Amino acid sequence: GGFFQISSSESHTKMLQAYQSLEPGDFPGFLKILRSPPSQRLQSRCTAFLNTMKAYHDLPVQKQSDLVQDFYQSFAEHFRSFPEAQVTEIMEHVEKLIMTRLHKWVFCHDSCDDEQKDLALQRRIRSLNWITAQMLSVPFPNEKIPVTGDPFLTAITAIIEMDAKRAPQDKLACVSKCCQHIFEALAVSSSEPANADDFLSGLVYVLLKANPPRLHSNMQYMIRFGLPHSLMAGETGYYFTNLSCAVAFIEKLDGPALNLSPEDFESYMRGQRAPSIAAKRHQVARDTQSLLEELQGRHQKLHQGVDDLSVQLQNWVQDVHSQIDEATAQFTKAQVEITAQAEVSQLASDQGQHTEGDDEDHSASALHDHHGAPEDERLYQDLHKNQQ
């Protein structure tokens, strides 16, 4: 008995050391340690718990939530000697492992009215699709800043992606990402740092534009099956609280909240009015103006390019002309030399054929030719000048 206790305490120490050396966010590493022999007991507890939950999947969802939260607490007890941050890391891995498997049994459970509430919230958001950023006093980029499309688009995309995730922490990460993108969009829109009011109205605007699928079910799932510290503390806690406030605001929204009279609000809701035509025209005018400016810029660049090209072409043509002129000059000069040489050699052969007695006449005519040669050369040069 004593030996077994020593060896089990040794293996327990080994197991704790393995978990302690785990890098933050290394889920595959966590699974590897959980499946190793020293961690046998912990793995068996996880498997038994998952089997129990599947067997009791008809229990009311609140009861299932209590079972999961109790399991988190008792599992965390094994690591009470660890620093708090490390326990949190390990428990996030446990949550991912358990809830990835249980998601299909407990999400939007039949025992509650989540599905009806999802549909009601979706209809409500759809009925408010006429609300503009200006009505919510969301700071939008001023006209000097070039913006392509809606600066809140990345935030809208992030909150829509939440429904596809299975672990509560992954859904919560989408909420955080959405909120961080809202702060970024607000920073672009204004030189002032964003305050809490701007942020909340930005979040309301994003929810109205995104109409995220199964929003109520997703929030309830995070509350019921997420780790409590994630929803109650720190940055993620702050973002989740704001999400809850934004949904409550949308559900209770009325005219005065948008600086509209109750009559105006009603006529918007009935679809008898559209957001002020003037506001829309102004937006279209702004978009058109920035498009025109961009086109003019491109046009100028194009013209500049054409001018540069034309100058290059002219230079090239001039180069070609001067090269042709040079070649012509050299050709003419060569022709003159060839002709002169031909005449000289003709003369020499003529001299060889004549008799001695004609020598004097020939000397005289040769003398005459010799004097005449410069005359011919001058003639060629004049001719060449005229050509040029």
From TrEMBL:
Q: Which GO terms describe its molecular function?
A: guanyl-nucleotide exchange factor activity; small GTPase binding
The record's Gene3D superfamilies line, in alphabetical order, gives:
1.10.246.120, VPS9 domain (1.20.1050.80)
Q: Where is the composition biased (Basic and acidic residues)?
A: 367-388
Q: What is this protein called?
A: VPS9 domain-containing protein
Q: Which domain of life is it from?
A: Eukaryota
Choose any GO biological process term that the UniProt entry carries and state it: vesicle-mediated transport
Q: Which GO terms describe its cellular component?
A: cytosol; endocytic vesicle
In terms of Pfam families, this protein maps to: DUF5601, VPS9
Q: Biased composition, Polar residues: where in the chain?
A: 345-354
List every stretch annotated Disordered.
Answer: 345-388
Fetch the InterPro entries from UniProt.
Answer: DUF5601, VPS9, Vps9-like, VPS9_dom_sf
**Where is each VPS9 domain found?**
115-259
What SUPFAM superfamilies does the database record attribute to this sequence?
VPS9 domain
SMART domains, per database record? VPS9
